[in-house]
């Protein structure tokens, strides 16, 4: 018999709803034709990897050097860690040494490594809503408890809610900017206020709460907006990121953790990250793609197509009569369930299927009453969905 807690998760109606819709989309496309199905279910970037990435793939695919496919130090090749340290230095505005970087198997691996390194049984992790649905499982993987806190109406951080959630059990807070699913970028003022709040909490509680910054969408922003650096503002910070979204290589599973060099516990946390990477069975990040990323992490990328799709989708939502949060980054539109549905996002997303529209219900993201549209799909899918969205809204419940 499988583990009881796993069985309970598998039997939950909200379990894996995004993946289920993704798979259901394939069936609908076979039945009705791809052009007649509007699949916005999953954040699978459809832009091709940049030319610099493609060139590096070709280069290292041909490598025949002895030991090219063998083990390396668990934390990754030193030259790869050097490249990631340079990248993080540019993003955070402070010098970062390669010794603070641990290469991981995508951002999911990085988050699990960070959480396992920090959590004791019963420790709590604060997560502002809405949030990436897998955080629940990542935290529970390591015997932690998720503490969900409300965000403000515009989905920015609510310091009062975070303050009320802090306790002596709080080990970390996960922030995701640009946010999946809202597209909100947390402002520099928000980050400064959060840092001040956590410093004050440490004075009274005696425990330093870590900020875990989940940043796979950092590069995908609109209107000249930038993701605020955290390292200069708060010492106890771990960046977890990947190249899945910005370089369009989600299936290659390559990412890393980087511990703030100013953290008094940096060496200990990095050592824990390396240990946890090994003992959770990841062992090390893929050798092949470590080399690819070291050579191509700074490839020029054009995200204007995502911005164009965002604008087209917003125009369709306006036409069809939906309310939504305007995304500042990433490639998701978070839309409010129309009136007449009592905020039941599960029921409404099931209703959308009748019109061959596949979207993720907001409840899975801690955003009840909303649904997520992933617009990292073909432009034609977006444009063709115009009348279907309108009909779905005006039809209402049966």
Q: Any overview of this molecule?
A:
The protein is an alpha/beta fold and 398 residues long. Helix content is 40%, strand content 14%. It has 14 helices and 13 strands. The chain has helices at residues 4-10, 17-32, 51-61, 78-92, 106-118, 135-141, 159-165, 188-205, 266-279, 287-296, 304-320, 345-353, 379-384, 386-395, and strands spanning 38-39, 101-104, 124-128, 145-149, 170-176, 210-214, 237-242, 255-259, 324-325, 332-336, 357-358, 360-361, 370-374. The strands form three sheets. The protein has a seven-stranded mixed β-sheet with strand order 2-8-7-6-5-3-4, sandwiched between helices. The protein has a four-stranded antiparallel β-sheet with strand order 9-10-13-12. Helix 5 packs across helix 9 (266-279). The chain is globular and about 60 Å long.
Give the helix proportion (percent range). Answer: 40-55%
Mean pLDDT: 94
Oligomer: single chain
Beta-strand residue fraction: 5-15%
Provide the structure class. Answer: alpha/beta
- Let me know the number of strands: 13
SSE blueprint and pairings:
Blueprint: H1 4-10, H2 17-32, E1 38-39, H3 51-61, H4 78-92, E2 101-104, H5 106-118, E3 124-128, H6 135-141, E4 145-149, H7 159-165, E5 170-176, H8 188-205, E6 210-214, E7 237-242, E8 255-259, H9 266-279, H10 287-296, H11 304-320, E9 324-325, E10 332-336, H12 345-353, E11 357-358, E12 360-361, E13 370-374, H13 379-384, H14 386-395
Parallel strand pairs: 1-11, 3-4, 3-5, 5-6, 6-7
Antiparallel strand pairs: 2-8, 7-8, 9-10, 10-13, 12-13
């Amino acid at each position: 018999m499988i583990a009881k807690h796993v069985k309970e998760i598998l039997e939950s109606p909200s379990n894996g709803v995004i993946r289920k819709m993704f798979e259901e989309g394939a069936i609908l496309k076979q039945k009705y034709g791809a052009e007649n199905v509007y699949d916005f279910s999953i954040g699978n970037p459809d832009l091709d990897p940049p030319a610099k990435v493609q060139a590096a793939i070709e280069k290292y695919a041909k490598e025949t050097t002895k030991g090219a496919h063998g083990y390396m130090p668990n934390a990754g090749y030193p030259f790869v860690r050097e490249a990631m340290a340079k990248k993080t230095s540019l993003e955070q505005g402070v010098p970062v040494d390669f010794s603070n970087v641990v290469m991981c198997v995508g951002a999911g691996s990085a988050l699990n490594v960070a959480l396992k390194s920090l959590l004791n049984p019963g420790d709590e992790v604060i997560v502002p809503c809405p949030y990436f649905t897998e955080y629940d499982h990542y935290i529970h993987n390591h015997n932690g408890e998720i503490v969900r806190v409300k965000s403000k109406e515009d989905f920015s951080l609510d310091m009062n809610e975070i303050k009320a959630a802090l306790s002596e059990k709080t080990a970390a807070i996960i922030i995701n900017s640009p946010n999946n699913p809202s597209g909100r970028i947390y402002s520099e003022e928000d980050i400064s206020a959060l840092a001040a709040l956590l410093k004050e909490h440490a004075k009274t509680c005696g425990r330093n709460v870590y900020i875990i910054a989940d940043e796979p969408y950092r590069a995908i922003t609109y209107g000249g907006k930038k993701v605020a650096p955290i390292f200069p503002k708060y010492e106890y910070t771990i960046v977890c990121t990947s190249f899945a979204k910005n370089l369009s290589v989600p299936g290659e599973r390559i990412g890393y953790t980087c511990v703030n060099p100013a953290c008094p516990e940096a060496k200990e946390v990095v050592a824990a990250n390396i240990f946890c990477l090994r003992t959770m069975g990841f062992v090390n990040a893929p050798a092949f793609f470590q080399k690819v990323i070291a050579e191509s992490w700074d490839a020029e990328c054009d995200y204007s197509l995502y911005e164009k799709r965002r604008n087209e989708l917003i125009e369709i939502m306006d036409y069809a009569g939906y309310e939504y949060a305007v995304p500042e980054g990433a490639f998701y539109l978070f839309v409010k369930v129309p009136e007449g549905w009592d905020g039941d996002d599960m029921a409404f997303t099931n209703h959308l299927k009748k019109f061959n529209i596949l979207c993720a219900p907001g409840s899975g993201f801690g955003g009840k009453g909303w649904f997520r549209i992933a617009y990292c799909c073909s432009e034609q899918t977006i444009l063709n969905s115009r009348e279907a969205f309108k009909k779905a809204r005006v039809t209402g419940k049966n």
